[in-house]
Write a structure and sequence with these properties.
With 273 residues, the chain is an alpha/beta fold. Helix content is 40%, strand content 18%. The chain contains eleven helices and eight strands. Bound molecules: adenosine-5'-triphosphate and magnesium ion (MG).
């Protein structure tokens, strides 16, 4: 596939070399834990820090980033995949000041990992990396080959889990697969929908203990979980999703907004893996 786009917005470092975006996949074991909510609001928080951010909706079969952001895209990844549109035309401005590449609903046929889907996703990532500071990849849930491939395109991973036992078990399964198949020795964890701020740290520690007992990367080490923060269960999140607005814009002072801002700060304070 030819991916063509203008290079007018290419960020350059002080020595004139092209900087590539930090690439972060946001994934989970269990569905519905808050990946898309975290992706959109984390993008807004990072944008406020002065970064140029793109969110790629890689939940190809069941995309809903457009719904959360109240966007009605005329051009989606589907059109880029089929050659009907240039990549440039599919990069859309989102509320919050960041950019999005939306999957739209026409991508059901791409929910299987065919060689074509691999090439398209890979080429699109390579084409946008020089143009942004941070690229967030909102993936589907679980360990299907499309999800694992989308995650493999990112240098860093954020696993989103909730305190529910089923979510913890599925987070553990995801961590195990990412460690064994992608040799990841570090993974970031965000615990969403916690009862109280601070609960996430204990959950991260519990998960780390299980991982240390039962998971080994091919190099023989258990992956380290970096706790990026927790986000309380907060009725303002549901309200923002209902109103199709970013929580950071609708209720910037809400506990969940503050949790997201903390996650952004911790992510930026970490060196990319
Ligand atoms: N911190 C929170 N407090 C309250 N409700 C929340 C919170 N986070 C998410 N939710 C609720 O959970 C719903 C699902 O969130 P979201 O769509 O982001 O999950 P997801 O992991 O992307 O799902 P999928 O696996 O289907 O892609 C939201 O619509 C919202 O109502
Ligand atoms: Mg989602």
């Amino acid at each position: 596939m030819m991916v063509s786009m203008s290079t007018s917005a290419t960020p350059t470092s002080t020595n004139g070399a092209t900087r590539l975006a930090r690439t972060v996949a946001i994934t989970s074991g269990k569905g519905g834990v808050g990946k898309t909510f975290v992706s959109a609001n984390l993008a807004a928080a990072l944008t406020r820090q002065g970064l140029k951010v793109l969110v790629l909706d890689a939940d190809l079969g069941l995309a809903n980033l457009d719904v959360v952001l109240n966007l009605y895209p005329k051009i989606t990844l589907h059109d880029v995949f089929t050659g009907k549109a240039q990549l440039d035309e599919a990069i859309l401005p989102a509320p919050g000041g960041f950019s999005v590449l939306l999957a739209g609903s026409g991508l059901v046929e791409y929910s299987r990992l065919t060689p074509e889907v691999r090439d398209q996703l890979h080429n699109i990532m390579e084409a946008v990396k020089p143009r942004f500071d941070v690229l967030l990849i909102d993936t589907g849930a679980g360990i299907s080959d499309v999800v694992l491939y989308a995650v493999s395109l990112a240098h860093e991973v954020i696993v989103v889990a909730t305190p529910e036992p089923t979510s913890m078990t599925d987070a553990y399964a995801t961590i195990k697969v990412l460690s064994s198949q992608q040799s990841r020795d570090q993974l970031n964890l965000v615990v969403n929908q916690v009862g109280r701020s601070g609960d996430g740290r204990a959950i991260c520690n519990q998960l780390q203990q299980v991982v240390e007992r039962f998971v080994q990367s091919p190099a023989g080490q258990a992956p380290r979980l970096n706790f990026l923060g927790d986000v309380p269960l907060d009725s303002s999140v549901r309200e923002a999703v209902q109103k199709r607005q970013l929580l950071l814009e609708l209720h910037p002072g809400s506990p969940a907004s503050m949790g997201i801002v903390q996650v952004a700060t911790r992510l930026l304070s970490r060196q990319p893996a």
